[in-house]
Amino acid sequence: MKISLPAFVGRIAFSALAALIGAAFALPLIWFLFAPFNARAELGLAIPDPWTLNNFVTVFGNSYAVQALWNSFIQATGGVILVGAAATLAAYALSRSSIPGKGAVTYTLLLFSSVVSGSAAMVPIFLIISAAGIMDTHVAVILTFAGGLLPTAMFILRDFIDSIPKSYEESAMVAGASPVQAFFDVALPVIRPGIVVVVVWAFVNIWGSFLIPFILLRSSDNMPASVAIYSFYSEAGTPIVTLLAAYALIYSLPVVALYLFVSWKFGFRFFGGIKA
Amino acid sequence: MASVEFKNVTKSFGNFHAVSDVNFDIGDGEFVCLLGPSGCGKTTSLRMMAGLETPTSGQIFIGGQEVTHLHPKDRNIAMVFQDYALYPHMNLADNIAYPLKVRGEPVDKRHARAREVADVLKIGHLMDRLPSQISGGQQQRTSLARALVYPAKVYLFDEPLSNLDAKLRLEARGFLNHLQRDMGMTAVYVTHDQAEAMALATRIAVMDQGKIVQYASPIEIYRRPATTFVANFVGNPPMNLVEVEGAQADGRLALKAEGLGIGALPMTDAIGKALATSNRLTLGVRPEHLSLAGAGAQNTIVAPLFANENMGPESLVTLDRGEGARVTARIFTDDHLDVSDTVTLGFSAEHVHLFDSAGNRIPAVGE
């Protein structure tokens, strides 16, 4: 195919511009990948010379940092199980039953969800958690996140379940299954891709959050990694870049791994309806 | 196998009566078709038999036992869904064997039985496939196999053939007919396709606006449609209906309409009663009872030609009587077809159906 000269120049200019923008976004990522292996890492971009794993050794030698990763894992997993299970059951009920005003319920919850996990509600949440006597526990963080994430999770899942024909469960029940059997044998496997999406989304949300654990937790034994990163500051308040970079890389790995696992196992694809 | 009975069954959704005060019974071993246009309540009736909907009022019996409020799982019925409802995450073996699984059959036993049924339906070689990996016709047979894998009291079919192409539909229809002869099952079959109903049913319940308009054998419905609605719904193409003005003359019935030439018909009490209400009657003649007529024919309809469709063995000749009123005739193509601008169709008096001003059938002499 022949293209005219102006069009050719235009394309080159466009590609150059796109490459420039791309580079601007890529630079932090390259730093993120290089700095952890650099014994003299600074905020500037530099290729490690020599490559070293010393930063990681130091991080893993810091029991507080390792404990924080474990705390992150507990809080994220706990939150995900709670959100996943509750959202699935609630969304299924909202989708399948004929409760009057169920649409209004979903939208109201959705409206409030941004408030619950947002900073606006921090004071009441603090007071509630304090009154419940669960301050400085994993449960406090898990419950707060569940409350904040559930409405959106329910909304996503309800939409997903709405798109699945009722006839799946109906045929199971006519065939002799109880509603509970029909749910676990037929409905749950079909809506599993939707649940996976919600679970990944909830995990990433909890794993990456700072404010809620920072406020609801007191002792350093309970702090998640997002808060613990602050321990890699010198007393003068300047960051120890080498350790910070190594810890940041470790901190981000579970999320990347989760995405890869899910996309390998489920491919983020939906069964959808069989061709009718 | 068992009988089914509806007693004063009504189902309302808000102010809308999907099914209103319906009564009928289905005998043991009968194949009953619920026939009607969409929204007539036929699927709702079927779903109430299955237990997927609860009647607003009335009672439903299966095999003499009241099941009105019984959960679907406790009714021991089988159902084939319009969209097949095959479980996308299970292979065909597990799909077909699912009813046996919930009945607690061990896995090897239920797979053997599933294979048996699948072989009859010629899908036995596909047992490891997922539903998304087989064709539409095979999916349809899989859903049928899942319904046949266990002995049910009643088999319910919700437009099971409507998603198949024309050729597969004929094939599946023939197979269902054979199956019914073979098993003698009690079946209720919902369809809007009158040809399917005529071909399969021992009795047809024609439904309109939540009510059963006529419940009779296919041949009865074809020969003696109870209302103009039934007449207009059954038959391919349906019966021609012509608005006529009736009058009594010399003890016989004279009918008048534009382009219609018809000899006086014998008068009956029923006609007299209809005329006493209104002289506006409806004359019905089936397309297959119309033929191209010469000038001497006694009963004729004359009108300009609207369309002439050659279907192979026969042609559909449609006349336009003005204001959207059309008359269609099925003419054997072998007959000398000399269709010009104006066509004369002839019919015999014995093929005339009469309906009163409310659309109800006026019984013919000897009915």
TrEMBL record, chain A:
Record-level GO BP terms: transmembrane transport
Domain ABC transmembrane type-1 residue range list: 69-262
UniProt KW keywords: Cell membrane, Membrane, Transmembrane, Transmembrane helix, Transport
Annotated compartments: Cell membrane
One Pfam family hit: BPD_transp_1
Transmembrane annotation, as ranges: 12-34, 73-95, 107-132, 138-157, 195-216, 236-262
Membrane topology: Multi-pass membrane protein
Highest taxon listed in the record's lineage: Bacteria
Listed GO CC annotations: plasma membrane
Protein name: Carbohydrate ABC transporter permease
From TrEMBL, chain B:
Compartment(s) of residence: Cell inner membrane
Classification via Pfam families: ABC_tran (PF00005), TOBE_2 (PF08402)
Membrane topology of this protein: Peripheral membrane protein
Protein name (database record): ABC transporter ATP-binding protein
Keywords from the UniProt entry: ATP-binding, Cell membrane, Membrane, Nucleotide-binding, Translocase, Transport
Similarity-based family: Belongs to the ABC transporter superfamily.
Top-level taxon in the UniProt lineage: Bacteria
Family matches, as PROSITE patterns: ABC_TRANSPORTER_2
Keyword presence, Nucleotide-binding: yes
GO biological-process terms attached to the record: carbohydrate transport
InterPro entries: AAA+_ATPase, ABC_transporter-like_ATP-bd, ABC_transpr_MalK-like, ABC_transpr_MalK/UgpC-like, Mo/tungstate-bd_C_term_dom, NA-bd_OB-fold, P-loop_NTPase, Transp-assoc_OB_typ2
Annotated GO CC locations: ATP-binding cassette (ABC) transporter complex, substrate-binding subunit-containing
Keyword Iron found: no
Domain ABC transporter: from-to ranges: 4-234
UniProt GO molecular function: ABC-type transporter activity; ATP binding; ATP hydrolysis activity
